[in-house]
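Batch manifest line 260
LIGAND: magnesium ion
JOB: complex structure
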Amino acid sequence: MSGQPLVVARNVSKSFGHVEVLKGIDLEVQRGQVVCLLGPSGSGKTTFLRCINQLETYDGGRIRVDGDLVGLEERGGRLHRLPDKRIAAQRREIGMVFQRFNLFPHMTALENVVEAPCQVLREPRAQAVARARALLERVGLADRAGNYPAQLSGGQQQRVAIARALAMRPKLMLFDEPTSALDPELVGEVLAVMKELAADGTTMIVVTHEVAFAREVADEVVFMDGGVVVERGAPAEVIGAPKHERTRTFLARMRAEHRA
Ligand SMILES: Nc1ncnc2c1ncn2[C@@H]1O[C@H](COP(=O)(O)OP(=O)(O)OP(=O)(O)O)[C@@H](O)[C@H]1O
Ligand SMILES: [Mg+2]
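JOB STATUS: finished
ARTIFACT:
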């Protein structure tokens, strides 16, 4: 169904040992929309993204992507963990880009992008190569296809990582602070690629400290602190006129750090 949101999270909770790091998170992402998650260090942003693509299990609540319960199935009124194969199938439909680029160091940019479609999706190699070239062009790296990660700047590596995630034709793209490990002068080129993806209708959840990016690109901004959603809404509201003191304090700190 195209009318329902692509992502629906309800009351998601997660503890590590005795520490509850997600305390009932709700989130909806409509198809083609961009949601930016902001929040201080330790607020649970990464953990929440990792629950959506099942790098972590969650303890309570429900996450649905495209109508399917993530990691679980309901049988006889009870929830059961899905078999690994089905979890792997669900994970293939979600692309994730991390703070660190995690490219395969012994493969060229092109090979990095070709690898998963060939190995996992069993795409014919010629077709995967053609698509990988098109994706590298899309992220502005057509001329770098033959370079190894060590021969690329951080911004270029991150753009290869984005192309690699897109090669799996994901329904949803998750970004976890994709620019925070980059030198400041390389941030813009990665944000520009993300802006284009957003403009092309890619559904994205972006954890970022780039407040200006969130303000410009997000359809909704969600501010988390201490494992809860403190405030959410249009960027003009949450960033432009935050209602909560915690949001204001966080934004003021971000602005101060950017000026520094
Ligand atoms: N594998 C783990 N085991 C134990 N505690 C964890 C684990 N992963 C995260 N935590 C804790 O969960 C809390 C939330 O961490 P998380 O990484 O989700 O925060 P974050 O909002 O992404 O922070 P940052 O902005 O620093 O990336 C933190 O207190 C963290 O120490
Ligand atoms: Mg994090």
